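#struct-queue
[09:14] JT: dropping the first one here, sequence first, then the structure tokens:
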Amino acid sequence: MDLVVQLWQASGLYQITLGQVVMIGVGLVLLYLAIGKKFEPLLLVTIGFGGIVSNIPGVEIATGDGLLHLVYMVGIETGVFPLLIFMGVGAMTDFGPLLANPRTLFLGAAAQFGIFATLLGALGLTSLGWMDFSLKEAAAIGIIGGADGPTAIYVAGLLAPNLLGAIAIAAYSYMALVPIIQPPIMRALTTQEERKIQMVQLREVSQLEKILFPLLLLLLIALLLPSAAPLLGMFCFGNLMKECGVVDRLSDTAQNALINIVTIFLGLAVGSKLQAEVFLSPSTLGILVLGMVAFAIGTASGVLMAKLMNRMSNTPINPLIGAAGVSAVPMAARVVNKVGVEANPQNFLLMHAMGPNVAGVIGSAVAAGIMILFTSGT
């Protein structure tokens, strides 16, 4: 009987807490969204599984010398994983739609308004005594509004590592829920006639333009805002490998094998930070609410900017593409195309929406650099 009691007391069922049960449930929900609903499966599968295994009592995989803790220290605390993913994303990105219609850069910039509005909101809640966020934590939370998971993780790892789990879950959850969150906002801010607007076919962009653009973009941003250079530099490097045409093997590796390997470990490492004692707190709920507000404001700002541009130009653009200014690539562009087709079956907005979508990636990297610059001394 003593052996039986000892075995029972050593079991996870005996040691498990209510908080751990809740977080295992959260991990299962993430797996359901990934597998059942196909929402960002590449990341939600790994984050959800990492969250489950990290909340099983007696499993030390996420603490001390455990594998996931070591992966977290090597890949996220140093910022390596988000940078490598940005390189892979750059290698899969086509700047053609943005170069063919440079006006869409303003839509990507406008969508970043959600980042700074949420920063102010987090500081406002702190001043009211409802939350307790420092300036660095508020800046890291605000980045969720860019709907860019790697950028959110990179900034959180530098400014607020204690909030990394909540920020990562919020960022990737809202990225996954783009098809649910964005359409009601887009329809509420546009008329049926605006949604029917057909855009002219984009011009063909030369190979030379595509090669020069990432180089000029990097030099311009790096010289003006060096703190944004790591993210944007890896993004531009990945794109240059794709467009230059002489390193196809390297480009293929960045687009496939490398980004897939990094994604596995990134997701598991983020999931390891979903431990109940860290995640279940009032600040986590505040982060999730603020993240939703940030994402909604970013979507609305892009649409409203497009409407404003139509008043100032004789060449109309469909204001729906402004919603793609959040950098959830390419899901936001696909959602824009879907809503556009619903209003007008002859309306194909996918390539037009990729312009602000790519601009949003650039905008979120620049916003991250600004956040890091102005909070580094606090």
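[09:21] JT: and here's the second one, same format:
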Amino acid sequence: MSRDKNKVEKVLLKKGFNKEEGKHHRFYYYTKGGQDTGIYTETSHTKKMKDIPDNLLSLMAKQCKLTKSEFLDLIDCPMSQEKYEKLLNDKKLI
């Protein structure tokens, strides 16, 4: 299922990602302690794209080092930033 692009971007910012402008909106993840993890994902600048389609959500999940189900939990808000960091720690990514 697709997700509203604006909602996804707002949630990423609330969960510790920092937005940088460029060819795309790029969101880099920083831990609560401010550590740059090197983990990032992107959304398009295209105004025509109101929703992020399912296939791109899968790609964003991979970029965030999550399964698609975990990523949907992150953006639909059951997963907190603390839980996201714990998953990354458990996977030895941070």
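[09:30] RK: nice, looked through the second one.
[09:31] RK: The beta strands are 3-4, 17-20, 25-30, 36-43, 51-52.
[09:31] JT: good to know. The longest helix spans residues 5-14.
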